[in-house]
Amino acid sequence: MTGGGSVSITVDVDGEAGLPDGGVGWEHRLTSRSERAYGLRRGLPRVLAALADHGLRATFYVPGATARHAPDAVRELLAGGHEVAHHGDRHLRTDALDAAGERAELEDGLAALREITGARPHGYRSPGWELTPRTLALLSELGFAYDSSLMGDDRPYRLVARGTELVELPVHWSLDDAPHFAATVDPSGLLAVWLAELELAAVEGRHVTFTLHPEILGRPHRIAVLRRVLERAEQLGVAALAHREAAARVAP
Question: What digits encode the pLDDT tens for the residues 17-42?
Answer without folding.
Answer: 766 666 666 677 767 777 878 999 99
